[in-house]
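Blinded run. Sample ID left blank on purpose so nobody reads anything into the name before looking at the predicted structure. Input follows.
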Amino acid sequence: MKKISFIAVITMLFGIASISSAFATEVWRINEGPYLHWVGTWVKSQPGKCKHCGTYQAKMTERTTGKANQYTVSVFKRSGSAYSAERTSSTDGMTCHYNFTIVNKVINGKGSCQGFPLVVQLQGNVLSTKK
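Blinded prediction complete.
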């Protein structure tokens, strides 16, 4: 019988725990902007009171220039499949409000940003959800 060291067992358990927690995080693939030219992810950092509610950390990239933007999004359920979200702490200084639906893991909606004259489109998919 082969002996396994205590350190090897701890390392293996830590690795399994890390993998399972990585899959337990809710991740959304998002396109946003007037022309859906910002692409990236919203990753849940704090759960809320409903399945998709909570605080998300967004990492977005502008498709043509490669410019990066990061911000915090607080998502709230309105009713049924309808949600709203507030974008704050943005590296570009903009605050935005979104209204959208999530149906069969498809995100679709619109928003407006302070000081920005165009309607902001919001589309995406829920890639994974916390069980």
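Unblinding after everyone has recorded impressions. The beta strands are 27-33, 38-47, 54-62, 68-79, 82-88, 96-103, 106-113, 120-128.
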